[in-house]
Task: inverse folding
């Protein structure tokens, strides 16, 4: 057995993503209000809440698709850089999967997973292709590698989008309603890939209305309303005994 030094042990427990006093406005709208959030490596955090509560904006600030007005965000101990190559590199460490799959329509499935590896991570093409084929296999679309996105079902496209994000070897994956645009029969194949990622130890932030997924895969549920984290708890505690009226009201409408 190798010895773990004290500093290694401390690093293993240091939070991977930390938001501290984060505020964000869109004009007069105070869309994120004093957000404090600390996510440990390997943790799966599910974010739920009514439409317009700031869930997407929260995700987008974590990989700097949105700037913040005040507060700090660190990924693995480093503050989010404002721009430039540093930002591109850091953003690559934060994978994001959107409701709309956002694949490049004029590139094959394989190219979709190869491109950013070559451009951002400077991986040699042959290696990038091997990685891409492996990942496509892992998410169950290996046979679709040479097709174009439009030839795939929504569920398959979303799994390609997940493979594409994973190809950047992210430290954390953000999912913003990844199954909301899918036909019902395709929801599970995507959730299954996400469950497997979670079981493999990926750190994940997942905005979703899939309460079954939240109950079974989340370590923690955050409930947002009006730009604030109103409540956070284990899924069991949250779903069986929500504390706030906002959460009770929300759950009564969706469960
Ligand atoms: P959610 O994902 O919880 O539905 P969002 O984070 O998308 O909420 O949006 C929160 C609020 O911010 C909403 O009122 C939305 O209309 C507003 N908003 C989101 N993006 C923008 C933007 N780029 N410009 C102005 N307002 C925005
Ligand atoms: Mg949203």
Result:
């Amino acid at each position: 057995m190798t010895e773990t030094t004290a500093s290694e042990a401390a690093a293993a427990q240091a939070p991977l993503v930390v938001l501290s006093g984060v505020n964000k406005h869109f004009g007069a709208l105070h869309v994120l209000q004093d957000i404090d959030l600390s996510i440990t490596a390997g943790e799966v955090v599910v974010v739920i809440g009514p439409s317009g509560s700031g869930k997407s904006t929260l995700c987008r600030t974590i990989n700097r698709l949105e700037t913040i007005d005040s507060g700090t965000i660190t990924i693995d101990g480093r503050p989010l850089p404002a721009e430039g190559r540093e930002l591109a590199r850091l953003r690559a460490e934060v994978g994001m999967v959107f409701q709309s799959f956002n694949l490049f329509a004029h590139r094959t499935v394989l190219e979709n997973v190869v491109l950013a590896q070559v451009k951002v991570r400077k991986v040699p093409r042959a290696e990038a292709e091997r990685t891409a084929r492996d990942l496509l296999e892992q998410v169950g679309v290996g046979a679709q590698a040479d097709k174009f996105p439009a030839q795939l079902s929504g569920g398959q496209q979303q799994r390609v989008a997940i493979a594409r994000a994973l190809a950047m070897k992210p430290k954390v994956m953000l999912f913003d309603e990844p199954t909301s645009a899918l036909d019902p029969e395709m929801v599970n194949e995507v959730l299954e890939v996400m469950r497997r990622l979670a079981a493999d130890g990926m750190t994940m932030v997942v905005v979703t209305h899939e309460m079954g997924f939240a109950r079974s895969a989340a370590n923690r549920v955050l409930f947002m309303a009006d730009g604030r984290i109103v409540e956070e708890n284990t899924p069991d505690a949250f779903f069986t005994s929500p504390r706030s009226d906002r959460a009770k009201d929300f759950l009564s409408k969706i469960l």
